[in-house]
């Protein structure tokens, strides 16, 4: 009995030690199975929990369906004839009817705003010729963008074997997709009305509630199945940042994504340390038809950093003390380095943006001889 009490006390002590650590690391009160917050422009992870776990993702699948369809569509006004395979799909629907005429554009809105599983199938058959072929296109796409822990089995997100992603992969895929103007237009649309005449008028309202309440929200996609739970991918453009928040299997998904977004915006800032194609100074030149050449950066460097650590970064430009002509626009005339706590985190060459010809006496004589005999 005494030994049992000792074991019980030890277990309680371990629980007391472990629980606060998890809450501190994972954010107290969090109710998600996995989470990732990504800055969409720099692709830097700002916050994460279990972000590489392979999980079901329900209708957030349709982010991939949409971008694959968009990238493979030449005419969004094209009219599609709804095939029998796209009718009566289980789950959320825009209630397509066999042989109904509907544009690619409206199918995309039906896919995202109403989360239509039938719209997903109609797009798959129109773009891929079959569900299987379109799913293959989806799997090729995720590998191409670096979402290596994602595999798709269908275009709509209903629970299926070998249909999974990670919070990080979803954030990465979304960051890529939001660079497409058409994708961004569709996911950020609050309401859409289309149809009428022979077919019913459809009134669609975006299921991402944050689109109606969060400053800078550009929407993206919700999802739910019994296996996946409630899932949300939400994006917000504010203060020069694009914060993409993903929660998987999260009851209060809107509240959590809103909190995670505000937390990221409070603590982080995106800073352009080196501006591309930017004039940085001049370097003197001897024996040339100019006395100096202008110097500029070629590439830029932007990083999302903690606001509290901004003073720990330093940018250092080093220019040549002097050059001898000739100088071309490919001449390296210095370098730029970015330091974090005295550690180099970025380095690049600087280039002359002027050409400077050689005019010394030997060069002139060589030119005279060359021209004389030619």
Please explain how this structure is put together.
The protein contains 9 helices and 17 strands. It starts with a helix and ends with a helix. The protein has helices at residues 2-26, 61-71, 104-112, 117-128, 131-144, 167-177, 181-187, 253-267, 361-373; strands at residues 34-39, 44-49, 79-81, 101-103, 191-196, 199-205, 217-225, 229-238, 241-248, 268-274, 279-286, 292-297, 301-306, 313-319, 323-324, 332-340, 343-352. α3 packs across α4. β5 and β6 (199-205) form a beta hairpin. Helix content is 31%, strand content 30%. It has 374 residues and is of the alpha+beta class. The longest helix has 25 residues, at 2-26. The strands form 5 sheets. It has a 6-stranded mixed sheet, with no helix packed on it. It has a 5-stranded antiparallel sheet with strand order 2-1-9-8-7, sandwiched between helices.
- Major β-sheet strand ordering: 14-16-17-12-11-15
| Terminal-residue CA separation | 110 Å
Shape: elongated
Rounded mean pLDDT score: 90
Beta-strand percentage? 25-35%
Residue windows where pLDDT falls under 50 for at least 5 positions: 1-26
Count of beta strands = 17
The level of helicity is 25-40%
Give the ordered list of helices and strands: HEEHEEHHHHHEEEEEHEEEEEEEEH
Q: What structural class results from the helix and strand content?
A: alpha+beta
Gyration radius from CA atoms, angstroms? 28 Å
Q: Please tally the helical runs, counting DSSP H or I stretches of 4 or more residues.
A: 9
**How can the largest sheet be summarized?**
6 strands, mixed
């Amino acid at each position: 009995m005494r030994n049992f009490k000792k074991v019980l006390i030890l277990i309680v002590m371990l629980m007391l030690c472990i629980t606060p650590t998890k809450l501190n690391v994972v954010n107290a009160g969090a109710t998600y199975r996995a989470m990732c917050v990504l800055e969409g422009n720099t692709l830097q992870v700002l916050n994460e929990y279990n972000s590489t776990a392979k999980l079901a993702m329900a209708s957030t699948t349709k982010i991939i369906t949409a971008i694959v369809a968009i990238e493979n569509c030449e005419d969004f006004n094209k009219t599609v004839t709804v095939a029998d395979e796209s009718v009566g799909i289980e789950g959320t629907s825009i209630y397509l009817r066999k042989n109904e005429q509907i544009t690619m554009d409206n199918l995309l809105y039906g896919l995202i705003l109403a989360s239509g599983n039938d719209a997903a199938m109609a797009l798959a058959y129109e773009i891929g010729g079959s569900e299987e072929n379109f799913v293959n296109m989806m799997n090729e796409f995720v590998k191409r963008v670096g979402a290596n822990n994602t595999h798709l089995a269908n275009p709509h997100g209903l629970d299926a074997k070998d249909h999974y992603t990670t919070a990080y992969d979803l954030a990465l895929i979304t960051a890529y997709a939001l660079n497409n103007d058409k994708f961004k237009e569709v996911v950020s649309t609050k309401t859409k009305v289309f149809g009428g005449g022979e077919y019913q008028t459809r009134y669609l309202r975006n299921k991402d509630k944050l689109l109606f309440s969060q400053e800078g929200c550009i929407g993206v996609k919700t999802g739910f199945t019994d296996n996946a739970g409630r899932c949300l991918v939400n994006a917000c453009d504010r203060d020069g940042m694009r914060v993409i928040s993903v929660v998987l299997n999260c009851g209060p998904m809107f509240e959590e994504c809103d909190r995670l977004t505000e937390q990221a915006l409070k603590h982080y800032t995106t800073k352009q340390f080196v501006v591309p194609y930017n004039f940085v100074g001049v370097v003197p030149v001897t024996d040339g038809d100019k006395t100096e050449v202008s110097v500029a950066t070629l590439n830029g460097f932007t990083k999302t950093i903690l606001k509290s650590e901004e003073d720990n970064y330093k940018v250092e430009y080093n220019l040549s003390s002097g050059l001898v002509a000739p100088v071309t626009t490919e001449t390296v005339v210095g370098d730029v380095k970015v330091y974090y706590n005295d550690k180099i985190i970025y380095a690049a060459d600087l280039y002359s943006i002027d050409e400077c010809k050689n005019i010394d006496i030997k060069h002139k004589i060589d030119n005279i001889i060359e021209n004389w005999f030619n």
